[in-house]
Amino acid sequence: MIEIQDITVTYSQNEHASFEALHHIRLTVPQGTVCAVLGPSGCGKSTLIKTVAGLLHPTEGSVTMDGAPLDPHRATIGFMPQNYGLLPWRTAIENVLLGPRIRKQDVQAAKQRAGELFTRLGIAGLEDRFPKELSGGQQQRVALARAFLLAPDLLLMDEPFSALDAITREEMQDVFLTLWREAQTTTLLVTHYVEEALYLGRTIVLMRAGGTIAETIDNLLFGKEDQRGSQAFFASAQKLREKIRAMKVVS
Ligand code: ADP
Ligand code: MG
């Protein structure tokens, strides 16, 4: 279980000016669930996910895993930044094998598992291409292969599907869910798409401008993938949008 305990993050711009991007954020991500953080651009989603990843230090508060401070050197954290985070000078397969290499794991075994993942993700044959030789959707698949090969204790995804066209995005959400269902990785995912939060989040955390949480919602549609085109799904999306409008979470 991941607990974000009363986190405040302040960026100092210069000696005289600072900017508070997150204001007393409290949030729990139970073991084996996906928590979707939904909020408008600039509300602090990336700041939150970078803080959980240990890339930023909070001014106040802490992040714990199962009661102990979350230490990126001890826990395995998979972080998928918005631009997929692939190294441009390495091939697809080398990007995926980077984790096992750094961890000094059995690279041959990892290579075999990576091969299986490439096949399942529909990118078999693209192993030796460089990121710039891949489409956005293909790069995203490579990033997912890398994340799931790592089998992290915690998976952090920053707007993972935002840069994709609508059809590819829905496809990739399904690919993600298929892999996720097998591994049940504890996941914190941030998005600005209402439908994405509804489709992927067991809980949905609504953030608003100013870096605060407006509401945490138990998503009853989670795990009912067959309902994406249903009336219930559209009704829930509509309700969520109204809620957001009423709270002025999205302008
Ligand atoms: P989101 O991911 O929701 O779009 P961010 O976490 O990137 O939001 O940014 C939250 C707020 O913090 C924004 O107002 C942004 O301008 C500000 N911000 C982000 N990074 C920095 C930084 N390094 N220095 C100062 N302000 C920053
Ligand atoms: Mg962001």
Record keyword descriptors for this entry.
binds magnesium ion, binds adenosine-5'-diphosphate, alpha/beta, 251 residues
Element layout with pairings:
Blueprint: E1 2-12, E2 18-29, E3 34-38, H1 45-53, E4 60-65, E5 68-69, E6 77-80, H2 92-102, H3 107-120, H4 136-150, E7 154-158, H5 166-183, E8 186-191, H6 194-200, E9 203-208, E10 212-218, H7 231-247
Parallel strand pairs: 3-8, 3-9, 6-7, 7-8
Antiparallel strand pairs: 1-2, 1-4, 4-5, 9-10
Could you explain the architecture of this structure?
The protein has 251 residues and is of the alpha/beta class. The chain is built from 7 helices and 10 strands. It has helices at residues 45-53, 92-102, 107-120, 136-150, 166-183, 194-200, 231-247, and strands at 2-12, 18-29, 34-38, 60-65, 68-69, 77-80, 154-158, 186-191, 203-208, 212-218. The strands form 2 sheets. A 6-stranded mixed sheet has the order 6-7-8-3-9-10, with helices on both faces. Strands 2-1-4-5 form a 4-stranded antiparallel sheet, with helices on one face. α2 crosses α3 (107-120), α3 packs across α4 and α4 (136-150) packs parallel to α5 (166-183). It starts with a strand and ends with a helix. Bound molecules: adenosine-5'-diphosphate and magnesium ion. Adenosine-5'-diphosphate binds at residues 11, 13, 19, 21, 39, 41-47.
